[in-house]
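Hi all, long-time lurker, first post. I run a small reading group and we've been trying to get comfortable going from sequence to structure in the token notation. Rather than ask abstract questions, I figured I'd post a concrete chain and ask someone more experienced to write out its structure so we can walk through it together at our next meeting. Sequence below, copied exactly:
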Amino acid sequence: MGLRPVWIRGQLPGGTLMRTIGTLLLFAAVAVAQDLVPKAPPHKGRTAIVNARIEGGEPGYLLFVDGKLAGRGTGEVPEGFTAVNAKGMHLYPGFVASYTVLGLTEIGAVRASRDMQEVGEITPEVRAAVAVNPDSTLLPVTRSNGVLTFATFPRGGALPGRASVMNMDGWTWEDMAIRADAGLVVSWPNPDPPALPADRGGRRRNAPPERGSKRLQRIEKAFADARAYLAAKKDDPSTPTDLRWEAMRKALAGERPVFFLAEDYGQITSALEFARKEKLKAIIVGGRDAPHCADLLKERKVPVIVRSIHAFPRRNDSDIHELYELPAKLEKLGVTWCLASGERTSNERNLPYTAGRAVAFGLSREAALRAITISAANILGVGDQLGSLDEGKRATFFLCDGDPLEVTTQVVAAWVDGKRIDLNDKHKALAAKYAEKLRQQDK
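-- Answer (accepted) --
Happy to help. Here is the structure in token form:
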């Protein structure tokens, strides 16, 4: 890959020394950026969390057996359960980060640690789960704030691959995968591209329309080719297998959703029309203009993953709080939706604070919690396993000392599939390191 130094008679060629030193330092950074927290063993047996304020309510208990929830209640705990005393802490289902590249990137400046983008425009055979790094230092940092499940998305290209739903603990990506194929991702072009920055003469320029039309042509051709291949394969099983089109089989059959990355009104409506023609199960990711398409979204029963509320409005006449108020508007309009953090990967831990910001701008606290728990799980297709504390679901939850949407609240313990996970992380190690420095200075 052109990263190894070239030696000539024992010397580095001119101008190569500093580049080589930089390369070595970058690889050292990658090597150091590995999670050293041990993974938890599988949960076996019968466990009860007692004296917990479940979802902020009255103190009670939560039961789980062999990694699955087995009921909740108040009063005496049934016999045969090992009790864990929560001492009045608050207990909530693990938060679900619905749109991330967690596990696919570590250090943005190091190409070798960025695995979210494959070469090529049409790569539906890519599954994000396969590239997830279980030892990423960003996973423990994120789960320390109650985010215990995440959807990770490939990016780049028109059909960059398939999203995956993962939990936050495991030795391998197979251990972590909840749904390795959660749905096909389509980066939908904007038929009305925003204006580019003004040129030197102060004239506004529009993005070249052919850029979007070429991408649309590639997408339409990919779906047509996939359908032609599947029809040929059905008629003649000896037809050579094409992994690209096989990867689209479930999406074309409606067994998996198609995640359309679309923000603006024209993008959303054209994506919905394409989904209608192709008979696809659509999910909109982004949804900046979703309130303007609310009736159509409800009619087609298309949910929205709100990608970010921390951004400036796109239009000059928009209210400065437009995106802060987006979740409240969608809730009021009756659109099915959930909330992503919109943060950089290293800050995905801020997901509950994003929900808290939406509460400050008109969303109810109950709706905000649903948006990062059961609503997110349902939209991602794993609501039967996660997102609430219902009996039979995975025992994935956490204890905290207050309202989890508040910045001052601390997560004190967490369980993933009934496994009590280690909440140590790089941030806590650094905090302890520099606290010791201050302690020594005070002597």
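A couple of things your group might point at:
The two ends are 51 Å apart (CA to CA).
Residues 1-32 have pLDDT under 50 and may be disordered.
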